[in-house]
Amino acid sequence: MASTTKTFTISGSVWVNKEWEECLLVDVKANTVKQAMERFATKHKSFFLRHWKFEVHQWNSDKPDYFTFYRDLVSGKFQQENPVTANGV
Predict the structure, then answer these.
(1) How many CB atoms lie within 10 A of CB 56?
(2) Which of 3, 9, 20, 28 gets the most CB atoms within 10 Å of its CB?
(3) Which of 23, 53, 24, 20 is nearest to 9 (CA)?
(4) The total number of structural domains that make up the chain
(5) C-alpha pair distances (Å), 18 with each of 12, 14, 64, 68
């Protein structure tokens, strides 16, 4: 059976001076976007202490998608925005 592992690039941004400032870029190997975020969160727990936005880019796929997650300041959980594909669909 062929492996379905993909490389996801996760960029992390923090809210500084009324704008998002990117300050983290990590590649994660996983099967799904959700799994990539879970693996990232496990390895980088210290990054969840502030107001973060994460974009997950899937480069090596038929259609390169990216997904945006925002950390909910009340629950501390990540909320996923609607996925946006490169072709706008």
Answers:
(1) 23
(2) 28
(3) 24
(4) 1
(5) 16, 10, 29, 18
Note whether residue 30 is domain-resident: yes
Phi, psi dihedrals of residue 78, rounded to the nearest 5°: -90, 135
Per-residue three-class SS string for 36-66: HHHHHHHHCHHHHCCCEEEEEEECCCCCCEE
Q: What is the pTM of this model?
A: 0.57
| Residue 65: per-residue pLDDT | 61
- For the segment 30-82, what is each residue's pLDDT rounded down to a tens digit? 888 778 878 877 776 666 555 567 777 766 656 556 667 766 666 666 666 65
Assigned domain for 34 exists: yes
- Please report which helix (H) or strand (E) contains residue 31, including its range: none
Range of the domain at 57: 6-85
Q: Does residue 11 form part of some domain?
A: yes
Closest C-alpha among 25, 3, 2 to residue 12: 25
Query: How does pLDDT run across 1-17, given as a tens digit for each residue?
Result: 556 788 888 887 777 78
